[in-house]
């Protein structure tokens, strides 16, 4: 995966005792929750405080997930804040791809990539990315690295 851009949004999560299993690390199932919470934080930071709840109910824009992938590199514990760096990687006609890199104490713990589609929320029908959202997202997508053909 590509490195995080300087423009990545940092969403801080306080990992607590209740997030952990008997091995004293965060339950595996909590890690996708942390990533999704960070994406919601990204929306709140870029839509004047509106997250998924407001997008769905007030803007009539749904963003259901169609793909989620995660790579784990280091355990998440309650010893340090979990800093989740979030950025959009791609904006399609009707979909958005987000990347989340989560770090504790300067060490990468997991990387996540998710794809959501835009819907008319009250009809659950696919729609193109709304113009207001496209205008916010497009400037924040980092340039893709150029690769040489083999």
TrEMBL record:
Superkingdom to which the source organism belongs: Bacteria
UniProt-listed Pfam families: 4HBT_2
The protein's name: Acyl-CoA thioesterase
């Amino acid at each position: 995966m590509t490195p995080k851009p300087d423009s990545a949004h940092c969403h801080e999560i306080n990992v607590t005792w209740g997030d952990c299993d008997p091995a004293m690390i965060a339950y595996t199932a909590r890690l996708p929750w942390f990533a999704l919470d960070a994406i919601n934080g990204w929306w709140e930071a870029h839509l004047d405080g509106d997250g998924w709840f407001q997008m769905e109910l007030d803007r009539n824009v749904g963003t259901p997930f169609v793909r989620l992938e995660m790579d784990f590199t280091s355990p998440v514990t309650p010893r340090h804040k979990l800093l989740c760096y979030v950025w959009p990687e791609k904006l399609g006609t009707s979909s958005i791809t987000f990347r989340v890199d989560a770090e504790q104490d300067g060490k990468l713990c997991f990387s996540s990539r998710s794809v959501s589609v835009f819907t008319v929320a009250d009809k659950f029908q696919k729609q193109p990315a709304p113009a207001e959202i496209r205008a916010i997202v497009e400037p924040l997508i980092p340039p893709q690295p150029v690769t040489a053909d083999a």
